[in-house]
């Protein structure tokens, strides 16, 4: 595990996974504290926007990894 986190791409993947976990935790807290305060449309927009952000993040990390492979 330590070897995986010592590489740049491994670290970026770990940060992305941590971000997803924090987002999901935030949704759980929101559902417990105030389940009726946010509507389905707002929640859908939030989830779709976050999904697009994470998708772009992981695609850019993968492209960075492929560029590193081509340089060697």
Helical run tally:
3
Integer average pLDDT: 86
- State Rg: 16 Å
Major sheet: none
How would you describe this structure to a colleague?
This protein is mainly alpha-helical and 72 residues long. The protein has helices at residues 2-6, 8-33, 40-71. Helix 2 packs antiparallel against helix 3 (40-71). The longest helix has 32 residues, at 40-71. The radius of gyration is 16 Å and the shape is elongated. It starts with a helix and ends with a helix. The mean pLDDT is 86.
Main features:
72 residues; mainly alpha; single chain
Compile the SSE list and pairings:
Elements: H1 2-6, H2 8-33, H3 40-71
Summarize the structure.
The chain is mostly helical. It contains three helices and no strands.
């Amino acid at each position: 595990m330590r070897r995986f986190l010592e590489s740049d791409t491994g670290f970026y993947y770990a940060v992305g996974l941590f971000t997803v976990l924090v987002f999901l935790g935030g949704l759980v807290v929101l559902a417990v504290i105030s389940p009726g305060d946010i509507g389905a449309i707002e929640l859908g927009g939030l989830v779709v926007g976050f999904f697009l952000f994470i998708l772009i993040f992981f695609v850019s990390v993968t492209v960075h990894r492929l560029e590193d492979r081509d340089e060697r």
